[in-house]
Design a protein that fits this description.
mainly beta, 2 domains, globular, Diaminopimelate Epimerase, Chain A, domain 1, lysine biosynthesis, DAP_epimerase_DapF, 4 helices, isomerase
């Protein structure tokens, strides 16, 4: 099976070209591909499928040619991945499968159609995700800590926990999943932990973030998670729009938000192409 490997600020993916939706991508196959010792290694798999050929995307075929079929590293299906969309876009353009009209490319996802824009000369790809919807309050439990959080819908569920000054972001143990209220998040949730940071040029606000992603454990970055964090940071600052720089372990992402849109910008890099032996993968 042919594959490519890419990442956005360290959030890495295996990309599988399957234009006509002929691959039976099982959860066990996804888990094996993402295994960092016995497989290729990744936070998730991006299957590259024509929207017209996939039952979950055919309704978007008139708007977007390509559908991003995203799976978490444990094989579970996810609605959205902000970094994944940006890497997916890089793959389509680099392989000649798509040519952005006016620099813009529509991509179908389980959360709807999003727009990607390719920067000129800076390696950046931006994606216009829908404006996050801030919900009610929740809590996350972690290593004896109970942390207040805010539920945010970015097409997938998030719980944003702004840390009190007494809790060190770098010192959090994310080797185990945080606890959360399953009644509030029946399908699981991505949990973001946030600390304030000094001002930086070009941004109204600057924060630090770590994330535990459902189905993937702690990752070096989470695109939709940065959007959720930016929405909460702007709300807490009494703003409805602005630019938020979010530093994750894998680098920096920038979120530009108003009441209608949420632009996520950052690098998207392809690092390898190859072929994997499915027989060896199964073993």
């Amino acid at each position: 099976m042919q594959f490519s490997k890419g990442h956005g600020t360290g959030n890495d993916f295996v990309l599988l070209p399957d234009p006509d939706s002929q691959l039976d991508l099982t959860p066990s196959m996804v888990s094996a591909l993402c295994d960092r010792r016995r497989g290729i290694g990744a936070d998730g798999v991006l299957r590259v499928v024509r929207a017209a050929k996939h039952p979950e995307a055919v309704e978007h075929a008139g708007t977007a040619e390509w559908f991003m079929d995203y799976r978490n590293s444990d094989g579970s299906v996810a609605e959205m991945c902000g970094n994944g969309v940006r890497v997916f876009t890089r793959y389509l353009i680099s392989t000649g499968l798509a040519d952005p009209v006016g620099g813009t490319l529509p991509i179908a996802t389980r959360a709807g159609v999003v727009r990607a824009v390719v920067g000129e000369g800076d390696g950046q790809i931006s994606v216009d995700l829908r404006a996050p919807r801030i919900g009610g309050n929740g809590v996350a439990t972690l290593g004896g800590l109970t942390l207040a959080g805010t539920a945010v819908d970015c097409g997938n569920p998030h719980l944003v926990c702004v840390l009190p000054a007494s809790v060190d972001l770098a010192g959090l143990d994310l080797t185990r999943p945080p606890g959360f209220d399953p009644a509030l998040f029946p399908s699981g949730v991505n949990v973001e932990f946030v600390a304030s940071a000094p001002p930086v040029d070009g941004a109204d606000l600057h924060v630090l973030m770590r994330v535990y992603e459902r189905g993937s454990a702690e990752t070096m970055s989470c695109g939709s998670g940065t959007c959720a964090v930016a929405a909460v940071a702007l709300r807490d600052a009494g703003r409805t729009s602005g630019v938020v720089a979010v530093d994750v372990p894998g680098g920096r992402l920038t979120v530009t938000m108003d009441e209608r849109s949420c632009w996520l910008a950052g690098p998207a890099v392809l690092v390898a192409d190859g072929e994997i032996n499915l027989t060896g993968l199964a073993g």
